[in-house]
Amino acid sequence: MTLEFVQGDTAPAITATIALKSDLSPVDLSGASVRFQMRKPDDRRFTVNAAATVTNASAGAVRYAWATNDLTVPGEYVVQWEVTYADLRIQTTGQETITVRRQ
């Protein structure tokens, strides 16, 4: 699924459920921290690499509220969530695509 935003948007926040790949059951995020990461498909550097909010740990629910300059450049982007568990293990989700269209 591709999400679409307009250049300069700061709402709505982007949300997701972190789930196991094997059976899509939600991952318990209790004690974990999560980062939202976004980059152009042909660039390894993240344009956004920021702390996200865990909104329901037992359900694997996360949210990232856009900062003022996050969506200023139109184009296609890939996004992912990076989870760091309390024991310092790291899990990165699969990538999704978002589009930022011109104002």
Quick summary:
The chain has 103 residues and is an all-beta fold.
Counted by DSSP, the helix tally is 0
Q: For the terminal residues, how far apart are their CA atoms?
A: 22 Å
As a percent range, the share of helical residues equals under 10%
Could you tell me the CATH topology label: Immunoglobulin-like
Structure description:
By secondary structure, the protein is mainly beta. It has one domain: Immunoglobulin-like. 0% of the residues lie in helices and 46% in strands. The protein has strands at 2-6, 14-17, 33-39, 48-51, 53-56, 61-64, 75-84, 90-92, 96-101. A hairpin with a 5-residue loop joins strand 7 (75-84) and strand 8. The protein is elongated and about 40 Å long.
Describe the secondary structure blueprint for this structure.
Blueprint: E1 2-6, E2 14-17, E3 33-39, E4 48-51, E5 53-56, E6 61-64, E7 75-84, E8 90-92, E9 96-101
Parallel strand pairs: 1-9
Antiparallel strand pairs: 2-6, 3-4, 3-7, 5-6, 7-8, 7-9
